[in-house]
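worker-3 :: picked AP-1 complex subunit gamma
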Amino acid sequence: MPAPIRLRELIRTIRTARTQAEEREMIQKECAAIRSSFREEDNTYRCRNVAKLLYMHMLGYPAHFGQLECLKLIASQKFTDKRIGYLGAMLLLDERQDVHLLMTNCIKNDLNHSTQYVQGLALCTLGCMGSSEMCRDLAGEVEKLLKTSNSYLRKKAALCAVHVIRKVPELMEMFLPATKNLLSEKNHGVLHTSVVLLTEMCERSPDMLAHFRKLVPQLVRILKNLIMSGYSPEHDVSGISDPFLQVRILRLLRILGKGDDDSSEAMNDILAQVATNTETSKNVGNAILYETVLTIMDIKSESGLRVLAINILGRFLLNNDKNIRYVALTSLLKTVQTDHNAVQRHRSTIVDCLKDLDVSIKRRAMELSFALVNGNNIRGMMKELLYFLDSCDPEFKADCASGVFLAAEKYAPSKRWHIDTIMRVLTTAGSYVRDDSVPNLIQLITNSVEMHAYTVQRLYKALLDDISQQPLVQVASWCIGEYGDLLISGQCEEEEPIQVTEDEVLDVLEGLLVSNLSSPVTRGYSLTAIMKLSTRFSSVNRIKKVVSIYGSSIDVELQQRAVEYNALFKKYDHMRPALLERMPIMEKTASNGPTEIVQTNGEAEPSVVEPKHPPPVGQPASQGNDLLDLLGGNDVPVIPTTMPTKPASAGGELLDLLGDLSLGGPAPAPPAPASQPPFLLDGLSSQPLFNDIAAAGIPPMTAYNKNGLKIDFTFERANPNPNVAVITIHASNSTEADMTDFVFQAAVPKTFQLQLLSPSSNVVPALNQGTVTQVIRVLNQQKQQLRMRIKLTYIHKGSAVQDLAEVNNFPPQSWQ
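worker-3 :: tokens ->
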């Protein structure tokens, strides 16, 4: 068989290939020749063939069939064979393949070889791909080589010991005696690898960390010698003596000094020397300074030293290298909480980084700028950040807008400034703000009573300029609806009032209703605003006409609003002024409960859970709560004194669950005579919602049990009103998967009044590990037998499930 081509010739041949297919053909042809040679046990050219195989492996072609040949080369007595064999083992083998265990004996023999270079090959291979089993078997040999006087072997043994410790941490103590004399070595290679070994041991064991703290003076001395030593061509890099060793020592000092006063005190002086004596004109010096800064910030260093470190980072911000600027911004962001004043000195430089072309630097500069905002610099910083918001890329706008909102809420010098700032954000980046920005701004405006006229005028002007920013349009619509009379009267004292007529205001709002730029939520805001103006403007007939038009809108949400508002104009006109009066001041914390952001048919309005205020028009019931009540609020549904004579209006029919049970929706009653029955939640203003509910001894029942979902009813009787039955549902799930998005809805015949309160959760845990509870209140004035239709919807194992059921077997005690 002819001699195979050399590696150099193979490389030259492959490089002549013009296409990928041609290259693959050459590789396949050569692989076939190599396989034939392996089958023939050709020892002469095995080394050459394995070398070529490794080159093909580096190109991405399969070379696994050469694994055993590598082991044969390792077992050879020739150094050239061993070198290629060990290289192949490192590239082609890893601990996931059992073949590597066959090497253990060869490596053990080579670790005890008389030639240091063979020992070095074995150490490199073990340190590269040794498994935990190999490390346990060979740790003793590595520990012996770590004590040898040969610096060539000691540095390789130290790195191999690092790998052994990572694989088998319990062997760490074996290497402890060998580390005593490592730092006294003059050879920089041994010093470097020794520091790496000590660092690994300190990071993995608190006991080792405490043990090695006594080495701090020795490490300080080595670092000082490196700084003070003259030019050494063997170790010099850009005029700095062995920067790699300096960086490693600084990292180890950082670990040793963290949380320890004595160690930190011992290294303060040398850190100051490194920080002041290191040349910054080359990248090598900057790398050492960066490690020095990190060490100063992590240990218990003096305040002057920390200021020096932050000043170094400030100088980094002026560097032309983008990587150095990014590193400086990231480091300052980590230290700004502990050394706020020192970082503040570099505020102007940080703000300048907002103009950088690099997006990573811009993002870090933006985050750091927000961290620097305080009550003293809020005006100047917001000016810069708003300018950045105007010109930044779209991917920054959402985070920047959120940051401005939070900073303005925390440090606003005045309410006018706060309102102006948020309006500026909505004007420039309204499409990118968080969902809660609209209700938060509405709450801010509502609570700033003296700013109502100014705010509504500013927002009206903004609407005339631009209606593309939906959050801004929603806030403006809400404010015009609430304070339209102030806009017309021109009572603004903060700036020159504008002259505007009722028709002009209504033109703007009607334009929002028909604009293609308006979202369904925005149209809901606009229609509600027009409705509110019916009590503030004299153009009631025009408003009636607009509202009636949208009673047949294809948008179901808008149609339902219009139908309800039409009902207000016709049947309940005497209630309209009270229902549409201005919103009360919304406090974030109220005595009766926290502020809630209530989702109002797609439009978010903040409201306080306080029963003394009537709920605003358009505030919906929670899902399934008062299914057919068109005008009542969540908390106090009104009970009719007479039976309705016609079905519920269009909005109520959307949720009709009863069908053939002849269900009709209750209509709000006019002011009742003295004989009127009590409200369902009568006495709410003087009692908590669930006050005085006493058990009535009514037996529980199972209302539904299907597909692993079980619904149990338990009963109580409300003390203030014995005609009200309080039913608590308990939903449990016996399947192996959670039921998510769980919604329980219920409806009763006309002769009853039902209220469904909020559930405890919308997830029914699997395997009966918990239940979802929900309270139903049913008013049964005529003591008739209770019937109910329930509707269940949930998602189970990724599939949506919906089911209807009738419950007619209520215990007599629950309705008698």
